[in-house]
Design goal:
single chain, 450 residues, alpha/beta, 5-stranded parallel beta sheet, 20 helices, 8 strands, flat
Length: 450
């Protein structure tokens, strides 16, 4: 079988496997192989590969280097967030390629500085196993280098020159080179762009791994319907694969029940259309796992509607955001005059009749949420939270996030002299569910339930 990938330095069966695994990336792989040259030849010192998320940058590099058995170290700059972790991960990965008895495989290499890294790197590649071939260092999420020492990026760009060795450093990132390069002059890498997958390419990739019990044409028709619904709002290959996996069982339902054939496109579409509309509301949210989603599909439908999980009813919040939301609810539905009774430990003896005297028949939950100032929200928050925390910018940013999520509502204008006021916009059932996740007895602190 002939392949479109051809290179004299690599075996034909390896190139054929690359073509089978790296669909719709033949031109990028061909260019990379041309830049790499044959294993014993010097390659370009540094290559900068950029493109949006899920365009295949990391997967292509992993697959090419693994299938062609090229010595390499692929490291994520998110996982290795310090220079020391970065150096040690690269050196210890490359050490695994050295089979010489001079180096103990159980010995962990430690490295503190870039000068030590250059010295230890030269020692490693001087061994016969790495001496006569190109060594590749792949830095994934390379934009994180901006948060590390200033000498890292210029150093890796000139690593071939400093070590006088056959090494190529490859940077994988989602940002353009102009946003990464340092202010001072540095060696310019060779820049390679990975474009987004087109609709036709996504169709080809998603249709490639079809279930064995169904024909390729049937699964391709399903992917075509899926892309017709989701392509305008989602072009993320990983998310589309997830959507294809969790919705396929519903698409096949009429076929498995004998109500339709694989070619009955109209009946299949009519069956899955409301289901896809529901799934459209949860794109990227991943509120539930695939197994939970499939379990929901098997449950009985109520009033003809899919019994799904809405983002609003099952939102996941950070720990302190939950307490801020609880504090907001208490401030909205408790009169301000009751705060001393609920949140001051040594408030003295206060008769209940004193509270019930003026509005003894008024239910605050029937009247709706009342606005409250920011200082009251924070005062209640610091009273109910189970740990002592400082009023940092992180707390205020979480309040803004709750407003953005429409769980709290900002009342009035931002330029009020006496500070902003808020209302809590969630129901009692919702806030009780949130309170249960942090083991907070909400009813005990609500004036209406005295």
């Amino acid at each position: 079988m002939m392949t479109s990938l051809e290179h004299p330095g690599y075996p034909q069966d390896g190139l054929l496997r690359l073509e089978e695994k790296l669909l719709c990336r033949e031109s990028q792989v061909s260019l990379l192989l041309s830049l790499f040259g044959e294993p014993h030849q010097y390659s370009y010192p540094s290559i900068f590969i950029y493109g949006h998320t899920t365009t295949g940058k990391t997967y292509v590099m992993q697959t090419v280097l693994a299938e062609l058995e090229l010595p390499h170290a692929l490291v994520s700059c998110v996982e290795c967030f310090t220079s020391r972790m970065l150096f040690e991960h690269i050196l210890n990965k490359l050490q695994s390629y050295v089979t010489s008895s001079e180096i103990s495989q159980s010995l962990y290499i430690s490295c503190d500085s870039f000068s030590d890294f250059v010295r230890l790197f030269k020692q490693l590649i001087s061994h016969q196993d790495l001496k006569n071939q190109t060594v590749y260092i792949v830095l994934d999420k390379a934009e994180q280098l901006r948060e590390m020492e200033a000498n890292l990026l210029p150093g890796f760009l000139r690593l071939q020159e400093m070590t006088d060795a056959n090494v190529t450093v490859i940077f994988l990132t989602e940002i353009v080179w102009e946003k990464l390069h340092p202010n001072m002059g540095c060696f310019e890498p060779l820049i390679l762009y990975f474009p987004d997958y087109s609709k036709v390419e996504l169709q080809k990739i998603l249709s490639h791994d079809h279930p064995s019990e169904y024909s390729a044409e049937f699964y391709a028709a399903y992917i075509n319907i899926l892309l017709g619904v989701f392509y305008t709002v989602c072009r993320d290959l990983k998310e589309l694969k997830h959507l294809a996996a969790i919705n396929f069982a519903k698409f096949c339902e009429p076929v498995t029940k004998g109500e339709a054939t694989e070619s009955d496109t109209r009946k299949l579409w009519k069956n899955i259309e409301p289901h896809l509309k529901t799934a459209m509301q949860t794109v990227y949210l991943r509120e539930i796992s695939s197994s939970q989603w499939e379990k929901l599909q098997q449950e009985d439908r109520e009033a003809g509607q899919l019994k799904g999980l809405s983002a609003y009813a099952h939102v996941e919040l950070p720990y302190y955001s939950k307490f801020l939301l609880i504090a907001g609810y208490l401030a909205s539905y408790n009169p301000a005059r009751t705060d001393r009774r609920f949140f001051v430990k040594h408030h003295g003896k206060i008769k209940k009749t004193k509270f019930l005297k003026k509005h003894e028949k008024t239910n605050n939950h029937l009247l709706g949420p009342k606005p409250f100032p920011l200082d009251r929200l924070l005062a209640i928050f610091y009273s109910i939270v189970d740990s002592r925390i400082a009023p940092t910018a992180n707390i205020f940013s979480q309040i803004s996030s709750l407003v953005t999520l429409q769980l709290l509502t900002l009342v009035g204008h931002d330029d009020q002299l006496n500070g902003p006021k808020y209302k809590c916009a969630v129901s009692l059932d919702f806030i009780r569910a949130v309170a249960r996740t942090v083991s907070f007895d909400l009813i005990r602190y609500l004036y209406d339930f005295l």
